[in-house]
Amino acid sequence: MIPLGFGGSNKRVGMENKFSIILPYKTKDIYVERCLKWISYQTYKNYEVIEIPDTICDGYPSEKRNWAILRATGDYLAFIDSDAYPSADWLSNALKWLNKGYIGVCGAGILPADAPLLEQAADLVLKWLPYSYRVTPKKARIVKEFPTFNLIVKKTDLLFEPYLTGEDSLYCRQLSERGQILYTPDLIVYHNRRPLFKPFWKQIKTYGLHRGHLIRLALLGWISTLFVYGYNFIKGLLRRKV
């Protein structure tokens, strides 16, 4: 059984573009309920919500998203985290840019105004780090990767790698080979932070380990490619005939 919540009729009544909002989570809690409530406030009504709790797919968030992608009926996939919730014009603003030919659109995850003090402190740290445009609206730009707490893309045959973190970076980079992903300040969700200190540093540690792993794989690929090219270049240089 697929838990689907529709913002309107499943039929395309006067709207040819349908969104599949993909919401992975472990169990339904107050954050999930909040997210679902704000999704229902969308000004653009042609969407479905695919909820993926552990009872349906017990795996990494990437595996839950893949489960949903394979069952989505929309033209666009709207990814959001369970501890985030969208602004009312989230889908309508996304459609405005997607109709201009971008393959994906993304935007900042702003800390909710009622967030606890330790989350506010973590938010300040994130604003001092590189990629601060992910947590506070900045000028529009083309990006190669973006987290799935606020990412809306055209539906393709691409799936996420089954990693705990870093899977969204790979997904976006593969998607970027097919078109451009636009970061825009008018695509807003509100996103809670891991509070300082232990939960926040644990999250950063995980990100660092997985990003290091991905860079190591890329470096090995680059070195092996250079070796193959160099070997064959010398081989061709020394040959009289090809």
Describe this structure in words.
The protein is α/β, with parallel strands linked by helices and 242 residues long. It contains six helices and eleven strands. Helix content is 38%, strand content 17%. Strands 1-3-2-4-9-6-10-8 form an eight-stranded mixed β-sheet. A three-stranded mixed β-sheet has the order 5-11-7. It is globular. The termini are far apart. The model is unreliable at 1-14 (pLDDT under 50).
Task: Explain briefly what this protein structure is.
The protein is built from six helices and eleven strands. The protein has 242 residues and is an alpha/beta fold.
Give keywords.
eight-stranded mixed beta sheet, 242 residues, single chain, three-stranded mixed beta sheet, disordered N terminus
Q: Helical percent range?
A: 25-40%
Provide the spatial order of strands within the biggest beta sheet.
Answer: 1-3-2-4-9-6-10-8
Q: Provide the β-strand percentage band.
A: 15-25%
Count of strand segments: 11
* Helix/strand class: alpha/beta
Q: What distance separates the N and C termini?
A: 61 Å
Give the SSE layout:
Elements: E1 4-6, E2 19-24, H1 30-39, E3 47-52, H2 61-69, E4 76-80, E5 84-86, H3 90-98, E6 104-106, E7 109-110, H4 117-128, E8 141-143, E9 150-154, H5 167-176, E10 181-183, E11 189-191, H6 198-238
